[in-house]
Amino acid sequence: MEKYEAVMGLEVHCQLATRTKIFCGCATGFGADPNTNVCPVCLGLPGALPVLSRQAVEYAIKAALALKCTVNEASIFARKNYFYPDLPKGYQISQFDKPLAEHGHVDFELNGETKRVRITRIHMEDDAGKSIHDGFKDSEKYTYVDLNRSGTPLIEIVTEPDIRSSDEAYAFVTALKQILEYIEISDCDMEKGNLRCDANVSVRLRGEEKLGTKAEVKNVNSFRFLKMALDYEIPRQINLIESGGKVVQETRLFNANTGETASMRSKEQAHDYRYFPEPDLLPLRIPKNWMETIRATMPELPADKRARFISEYGLREYDAQVLTADQYLGTYFEQVAKATGDGRTASNWVQGDLSALLKESGKSIAESPVTAAGLAELLQLLAKQEINGKQAKEVFAKMFETGDSAKAIVEREGMKQISDTGAIEKIIDEVLAANPKQVEQYKGGKTTVIGFLVGQVMKASKGQANPATVNDLLKAKLG
Q: Residue 431 maps to which CATH number?
């Protein structure tokens, strides 16, 4: 790697979370029985005409705006011809020379440095079906085809060859996924195929301008696998060149079991697909007033939210990064922070106790038994010194387990903090009388023994005495 550098671009396919398919009214829900969500349009039957989904176009425009792209006033759908067993039409409806949007970028952080990957284009297309390989049965190999996914709306996000390492690729797709989740156009669930990635990989001598021959690593369905695939493919190409061979332009598949890529087929050039304008669809024209309506509905994006959390709530950069990694976590935190007026305390509890219990129980933030209002109520009791820090943690655990409110648990368990000095002094007098040895040690100069005495007072009060008041009163009585 000192001699060579990798040059990579990615093609990310994002399945849009529309209610229906892109060119027909079939449902897009995941998990239906095979080949039930189909109709003449998505099956490509003769005489069936596609009708473009307005919701799919709106979601695609949202993605373009979020990725800083220019949305073209007019774009054209084209037929991309090729044969797959799970492509019933024999062609895919996509966009070729006139895509929906172009010329954007994604900025992301890696090792304390801001990186930028340019977006070449975003185009719309329909998805193919799914082939399920069932291994061998009775000495025969069986493959089943499920066409439920056929016709599901996709956007393909194509980058410039700006990526130089597997770490950069991983950080880029992580940032991209976060943006797409924030604008709520896709579930981005890679296990369900909502997000898939192809990587175009080449290597060249450092300082060279000319790009090397690229190989495409196809359909990588997890970020970890993407990094593993690149960590194998880059050295493979370097070793091939160093041994006197040549990299050939081809499509390769990544095998997660072996951690290797393997040749699948020689890579088709664009003319092999025989693109031509889709005769059944008019050019897509985006009126300016519709664009502005969509722009007005755009939510705050992750980078903007991070900057605001730092300036508005006084958070550290790291804390802001953690709290904005998930849109719903950030919303939860902000509701607590606004209710309590204390951003840092809210941040500590959300990242600490709440996140720990969510992880332990296998729940997401959306499934939390403790609402943001519930946590805010607990922190308000703590701020008013009606309970102490130790009690707050005990109450929170009970809130998470039962779903009860903080006030209800405090009253039921008799946990309200004692701040009345008279009541605390009475307990202190009893503790001092019961521990004369420690009293003499303190008066003799061993002041650390006060920790023991505070502990005894807290124990006698069943943890309800105000620790700060206990400490002050003890010091006063001991002189």
A: 1.10.10.410
